[in-house]
Amino acid sequence: MAMVAAVMMALLSACPSMFGQWRLTIKPEDAFSDSRQVALAAASMAGNVRAIENAVKEGANVKAIGRQNPTTLWYALVAGEKKAFARLLELGADPNQ
Predict the structure, then answer these.
(1) What does the alpha-carbon distance between residue 36 and residue 31 come to, in Å, rounded to a whole number?
(2) What's the whole-model pTM score?
(3) Beta carbons of 61 and 84 less than 8 angstroms apart
(4) Which residues pair with 71 in a beta bridge?
């Protein structure tokens, strides 16, 4: 898991614009029915670390997988949000999902 996370972080650092060009194919509100998960995914996509932490405190699961398989890490990665991506890893998100 650490190797996958390290590679993803390196890619985010080296090529942030590459990920920003990817299109989000599913919005957080379409991927998750739980409002806490929607808030976590939206915060991840926006790079809002404080909102990520608040969503987790409210019960959002950093390992949740939404409809069509997006994860909170995926939202942060596609948006090019390195700090959000790193914080999600610290909170237990699994880059192998």
Answers:
(1) 12
(2) 0.79
(3) no
(4) 65
Sign of CA dihedral 74, 78, 80, 81: negative
Place of tokens 């949000």: 81
Q: Of 95, 90, 79, nearest to 44 (Cα)?
A: 79
What does the pLDDT look like over 19-68, one tens digit per residue?
544 456 789 999 999 999 999 999 999 999 999 999 999 999 999 999 98
- Tell me whether residue 60 is exposed, middle or buried, using C-beta atoms within 10 angstroms of its C-beta: 0 to 12, 13 to 18, 19 or more: buried
Long-range (24+ apart) CB contacts under 8 A made by 18-25 are 18/80, 19/77, 19/78, 19/79, 19/80, 20/78, 20/79, 20/80, 22/78, 24/75, 24/78, 24/79, 25/68
CA distance 91 to 52: 10
Query: Could you read off the pLDDT of 77-95 as tens digits, one per residue?
Result: 888 899 999 999 999 999 8
**DSSP 3-state assignment of 25?**
coil
